[in-house]
From TrEMBL:
This is GTP-binding protein. Keywords: Chaperone, Hydrolase, Nucleotide-binding. It catalyses: GTP + H2O = GDP + phosphate + H(+). PANTHER family: COBW DOMAIN-CONTAINING PROTEIN (PTHR13748:SF62), COBW-RELATED (PTHR13748). SUPFAM superfamilies: Hypothetical protein YjiA, C-terminal domain (SSF90002), P-loop containing nucleoside triphosphate hydrolases (SSF52540). Belongs to the SIMIBI class G3E GTPase family. ZNG1 subfamily. The keyword Hydrolase applies.
């Protein structure tokens, strides 16, 4: 990697499943249309839904849907970084949206390696927090706390949905987990892109490369959280699938973290189906946006593939 060229600024967007990372990223991309940007979208589960949602405002999108980027740090991410560093016209900004369960600390540490730092400059790590669900997420998962602890900016999102008390409780909880970070509030991920240019809160600890390459674990570290992906050739009855999922999210709130899919209804229209917390939301996609079989991914702990398939089949038309 050449040393003299200006370094490529890198923004890592992290936050628990459904917190609003893609929404916030889209908002930032819209504000930064003047610089050619590249997005690396990492999704847990094999369906690249977020990539399709950010493509409109980005010059280039790399999708890493084969597990969590923080678990395969020696492979795919380095290949993409090497490719970007070689490009004749380097991107003006690189955005990385991590999965909702990523260990963003290890991801950020990648950019402190001397070889990577020559061409990339890590900007503040942004952690998006769902203010209505964070207290629950902190008590039931490890990942939510890790993400908050390793961020420079904590965005308390979904303020419009949270009561004043919930917002205060969320602010206290995140401050306990990370007293150093800047805390800002947002609705629909609307934060100013000037956040991208502020200095990091964490000092850049020099990273000393070990002499021998350490043996990295080849198995994902998030062994407890699994993504179960399902495809269906038959169309869905939207009110049935919404009902089935709403009931399941009530009954298995501690097990099911996120549902996300692109489904076709019996009139041929395609829809984005998703849950955050206990809410299920179905929004029509633009004409021509969907194709192939309907696909639904359910992410959670102790989620049994066959049980989920049985459940989802109840929502078919
Ligand atoms: N009411 C409300 N909804 C929001 C807000 N921010 C995001 N959402 C919605 O929350 C849902 C999840 O948002 P995403 O941006 O997809 O969340 P994410 O963190 O990228 O999700 P994963 O990639 O699955 O982890 C979507 O339906 C958004 O429209 C907000 O401030 N208020």
């Amino acid at each position: 990697m050449a040393g003299q060229r200006p370094r490529i600024p890198v923004s890592i967007i992290t936050g628990f499943l459904g917190a609003g990372k893609t929404t916030l990223l889209n908002h930032l991309l819209r504000q930064r249309q003047d610089v050619p940007n590249v997005v690396i979208e990492n999704e847990f589960g094999s369906v690249g839904i977020d990539g399709a949602l950010v493509r409109q405002y980005s010059n280039e999108v790399y999708e890493v849907s084969n597990g969590c980027i923080c678990c395969s740090l020696d492979d795919e991410l380095f290949d993409i970084l090497a490719e970007l560093a070689r490009e004749e016209e380097a991107p003006g900004h690189l955005f990385i949206e991590a999965t909702g369960i990523a260990d963003s600390g290890s991801l950020a540490a990648t950019f402190l390696r001397p070889d990577i730092r020559k061409r990339f400059e890590l900007r503040p790590v942004i952690c998006v927090v769902d203010s209505t669900n964070i207290t629950e997420q902190l008590s039931s998962t490890q990942e939510a706390g890790q993400q908050i602890a390793s961020a420079d900016v904590l965005v308390l999102n979904k303020t419009g949905l949270a009561t004043t008390e919930a917002l205060q409780a969320a602010a206290q909880a995140v401050k306990r987990a990370n007293p150093l970070a800047r805390i800002i509030q947002s609705a629909d991920g609307r934060i100013s892109a000037t956040e991208l240019d502020l200095p990091r809160v964490r000092p850049e600890v020099p990273f000393v490369l070990p002499k021998a390459k350490p043996a990295l674990p080849k198995v994902p570290v998030h062994t407890a959280t699994v993504a179960s992906s399902h495809t269906f050739d038959r169309p869905f009855d939207l009110s049935k699938i919404k009902h089935v999922l709403s009931v399941s999210l009530m009954l298995y709130a501690k097990q099911i973290f996120r549902v996300k899919g692109i489904v076709q209804s019996h009139d041929g229209q395609w829809h984005l189906l998703q849950s955050t917390g206990k809410q299920v939301e179905i929004t029509p996609l633009a004409p021509g946006a969907g194709a192939g079989p309907s696909t639904i991914v359910v992410i959670g702990q102790g989620v049994k593939e066959e049980a989920v398939a049985r459940l989802l089949r109840q929502g078919l038309a």
